[in-house]
Design goal:
heterodimer, A: 334 residues, alpha/beta, 5-stranded parallel β-sheet, 11 helices, 11 strands, B: 313 residues, 7-stranded parallel β-sheet, 12 strands
Chain lengths: 334, 313
C-alpha cells in the first residue's frame, strides 16, 4: 500500500540523518511553495503533503516528537489543538501574508516562532485591488463578456463611471493599503483611511470608523486582517452610507463583509458595484452573484502570480534556513 | 438659432442629442436610409455636422454640403475628418481634447491589469462554477514591468504617470524626442517593442501611423510581450495581430478598438490572452457629458461669431 511505502521511506531517512524535521500542513501539491530542489539542511517528512496531519500522526506516532517546523497555509489551521499534538514544534512558517489560521497567542505562549510572507505579495495584491476597482467602475469584464456573446451589433454598451479624482477610503493601512494608496494617487484619487490606530507619519485623512470613512468616500477598499474586531466590518449601515454609486473592493478576507447583505445591496442597487477576490466560504460563491453585471468575481488570487510563487518559495527556504541556523527569521510575525 | 440645420452623423448620448435638438434643426443621418434623399432635401441648409470617433466628414461628404461651416467632433481623434479639405474650404473643425484624457488613461491601465492578471477570464472561471475544482492558474505580475508608449501626448503622458505608480519603468517612441521628458526614448517602434514588456498605442491615427503595429513590431514584442491599443483600430495590422496571437508569437493583447468596428475578428473570441472592449475609452457618464458640453459650446461660439473653444482647423 502507498502509505506503508511512505512509512518505510521515512523510517530509513530518519535513521540516516539528524536533520530538522519539517511537516507540510497544506493541500495536495502544497510542496509547490518549496524550492524545486529543497535545501539539504532539513528533512521534509511529507514531500507530497500527504497524508494530512492527523492521519500522518496516526500512522507515524514516533515522528510526532521530532517535528520541529510546520509549513502551513490558510485552510490548514495551526490552532491550540494542533500545537498540542506537536510537542517539539518551534517554528510555524506560512507562505501567506495573512495569519488568521494560526493561533498566534498560543504560539507566543509556547515560545514557537512564526514567519509569514511579509510584504512579498503586497504589490501583487495592491495591483489586483486596483484592477478590480477599474474593472467594476469601467465595466471591463462586463464589456468583454458583452463582446464575446457576439449578440450585439451595433455596440450599445452602458457607460461606466470615472475613476480619476475619486475619493478612496482604504480600510487597513499596512503594507498592502499603502501600496494601493500609492497607485491610486497616480490616478489623482483622494485617499483617506481607517485602521486600528491612526498612523502619525501618514498625511492622508484618518477616520476612526469604517462608517465615517464610507460616508466621506466613493470607494472602500478592504486591505486589513480578519479578526474579532473586523468581522463584518462592512455591514448594511456602511454600504448604505457608501451609497448607490459607491464601489467596494475586497482583497482582505471574505468575512470582512456581510456577504448576504452585500448581495442584497448589489441586487437592489443600494451600492454601485463590488470587486471581490475573497468570499466568506471559499471556494463557494453564492450563485446569485453570477447574474450580476455590477460585480467582478476573482478566485482568491491576489498573490497568485508566477513572480510571487518564485519569491515565496525562496522566502520559505530562507526562513527555514535562518531558523535552523539560529539566525533571526527574515519575515517574523511574532 | 432653431433654423440652423445641424447633421448628426453618429450616435451620441441622449443629453447631447436632446440639446442639439433644442437649439438647432437637428437632422439624424440614420433617419435617411437613402443618402440621396438626405442630400436633395437638406444639403442646401446643413451648416454644421457632429461626428464621433467612427464617423466624421470625408471629402465626398464635405463636397456634398456646400453650406457646411463647421464639423464638431464628439471625440478627440479626427482621423475620420478630411482636415485638408476642411482647411481648403474654410470649414472649422473642433474636437474634445483634455476632458477624456483621464478616462482613456484609466482604461489603458485597466486593460493592462485585466490582461496580465486575467481578470475577465477568472471572473468567467468563478461564474462557471470552476473554482470548486481548483484554483485559477498563476498569472503575470504588472508592477515593475517595462511599459513602452507610442505617442507621448496628453493621453500617453497620463498613462505614463499612472504606470509609474506601479513602479514601471517608462519608455516611448514619438515623432520627435521630447527633450524635457524623463522617460527613455527609442527612435523606432521596433526598438521600443524589443525593449518593452507592455506596448501601448496612444498616438493619433495619420497616414504615417497607419499599421504602425505590424508583423515586425509584434515579433519584437514577442511571446512574453503584451499589446494594448486604446488608439484606433487601424494602428494595428489586425490580421497579423490575430495570426501572432493564434501562433503564440505574442503574449497577449488588450484592445479597445478594431479596424472595422463593430466587427471583431472571430478568432479572438476563443482566446484567454486577450481582453476585448467595444470602444469605451471615454465611456463614462462624466466624460461623455463633458465632451457633449464641448461640442455644444463650440457650435454656440461659432454661430455667435465668438472664438471656438477647442479648434483644430
Amino acid at each position: 500500500m502507498a502509505n506503508q511505502k511512505n512509512n518505510i521511506i521515512i523510517e530509513q531517512s530518519s535513521e540516516d540523518n539528524n536533520l530538522p524535521k519539517i511537516f507540510l500542513h497544506g493541500p495536495p501539491k502544497f510542496s509547490i511553495v518549496l524550492q524545486p530542489k529543497p535545501s539539504h539542511n532539513f528533512h521534509i517528512l511529507n514531500p507530497s503533503s500527504h497524508p494530512p496531519l492527523h492521519e500522518f500522526i496516526a500512522l507515524n506516532p514516533h515522528h510526532v516528537s521530532s517535528i520541529t517546523a510546520v509549513v502551513c497555509t490558510g485552510g490548514f489551521p495551526v490552532n491550540a489543538e494542533v500545537l498540542q499534538l506537536l510537542p517539539s514544534l518551534r517554528l510555524v512558517c506560512t507562505p501567506s501574508a495573512g495569519t488568521n489560521h494560526i493561533d498566534l497567542s498560543e504560539c507566543l505562549r509556547r515560545g514557537i516562532q512564526v514567519s509569514s510572507a511579509g510584504n512579498l505579495f503586497s504589490e501583487d495584491v495592491a495591483d489586483l485591488a486596483v484592477a478590480l476597482l477599474i474593472d467594476v467602475g469601467r465595466k471591463i469584464s462586463a464589456a468583454d463578456r458583452f463582446l464575446r456573446s457576439q449578440l450585439q451589433k451595433p455596440w450599445d454598451f452602458p457607460l461606466g463611471s470615472k475613476l480619476t479624482g475619486k475619493k478612496i477610503g482604504i480600510v487597513g493601512m499596512g503594507r498592502i493599503g499603502l501600496e494601493v494608496a500609492k497607485r491610486l494617487e497616480a490616478f489623482s484619487c483622494m485617499i483617506s483611511y481607517n485602521s486600528r490606530n491612526k498612523k502619525p507619519l501618514l498625511s492622508y485623512p484618518f477616520y476612526s470608523s469604517v462608517l465615517e470613512l464610507a460616508t466621506n468616500t466613493n470607494v472602500i477598499i478592504l486591505c486589513c486582517d480578519l479578526n474579532d474586531q473586523t468581522r463584518h466590518i462592512v455591514n448594511k449601515e456602511v454600504m448604505l452610507a457608501l451609497g448607490k454609486r459607491g464601489i467596494i473592493v475586497n482583497v482582505g478576507r471574505g468575512a470582512l463583509i456581510d456577504e448576504k447583505e452585500l448581495l442584497k445591496c448589489l441586487i437592489e442597487g443600494e451600492i454601485g458595484g463590488a470587486g471581490l477576490d475573497v468570499f466568506e466560504n471559499e471556494p463557494h460563491v453564492p450563485k446569485e452573484f453570477f447574474s450580476l453585471d455590477n460585480v467582478v468575481l476573482s478566485p482568491h488570487k491576489g498573490a497568485l502570480t508566477s513572480e510571487s510563487l518564485i519569491g515565496i518559495s525562496q522566502l520559505v527556504e530562507q526562513n527555514l534556513k535562518a531558523f535552523f541556523s539560529n539566525k533571526p527569521l527574515i519575515t517574523p510575525v511574532i | 438659432m432653431g433654423s440652423i440645420s445641424v447633421l448628426l452623423v453618429a450616435k451620441v448620448i441622449p443629453y447631447l442629442e436632446q440639446e442639439l435638438n433644442k437649439r438647432y434643426n437637428l437632422l439624424r443621418i440614420w433617419d435617411f436610409p437613402q443618402k440621396s434623399q438626405l442630400l436633395t432635401q437638406h444639403s442646401a441648409s446643413i451648416r454644421a455636422a457632429v461626428g464621433n470617433a467612427s464617423a466624421g466628414a470625408d471629402a465626398e461628404f464635405i463636397d456634398a454640403l456646400p453650406k457646411l461651416e463647421i464639423v464638431s467632433s464628439y471625440s478627440v481623434g479626427v482621423d475620420m475628418i478630411d482636415l485638408n479639405k476642411c482647411k481648403e474650404k474654410g470649414i472649422r473643425v473642433t474636437n474634445t481634447p483634455d476632458v477624456l484624457t483621464d478616462d482613456v488613461a484609466d482604461l489603458a491601465i485597466g486593460l493592462i491589469l485585466a490582461l496580465l492578471r486575467r481578470i475577465c477570464e477568472s471572473d468567467r472561471y468563478v461564474r462557471n462554477g470552476n473554482w470548486k475544482s481548483g484554483d485559477y492558474k498563476l498569472t503575470t505580475k504588472f508592477s515593475g514591468k517595462t511599459v513602452g508608449i507610442i505617442g507621448l501626448g496628453r493621453i500617453g503622458t497620463a498613462i505614463a504617470k499612472r504606470a509609474e505608480g506601479f513602479n514601471c519603468p517608462i519608455s516611448y517612441f514619438s515623432r520627435t524626442q521630447k527633450q524635457e521628458s524623463k522617460y527613455k526614448y527609442y527612435p523606432s517602434v521596433v526598438e521600443l517593442a524589443s525593449n518593452s514588456d507592455i506596448l501601448v498605442v496612444a498616438c493619433p491615427l495619420t497616414e504615417e501611423t497607419h499599421h504602425i503595429i505590424n508583423r515586425e513590431v509584434i515579433n519584437a514584442l514577442g511571446p512574453k510581450g503584451y499589446l494594448i491599443n486604446i488608439g484606433r483600430g487601424k494602428h494595428v495590422d489586425e490580421p497579423e495581430l490575430v495570426a501572432a496571437l493564434l501562433e503564440g508569437r505574442l503574449g497577449g493583447a488588450g484592445l479597445d478598438v478594431f479596424e472595422n468596428e463593430p466587427h471583431v475578428p472571430e478568432e479572438l473570441f476563443g482566446l484567454e490572452n486577450v481582453v476585448l472592449l467595444p470602444h469605451v475609452g471615454s465611456g463614462t457618464v462624466e466624460t461623455r457629458t463633458a465632451m457633449a458640453d464641448l461640442v455644444l459650446g463650440n457650435l454656440e461660439a461659432h454661430f455667435l461669431g465668438k472664438p471656438l473653444l477647442t479648434p483644430l482647423v
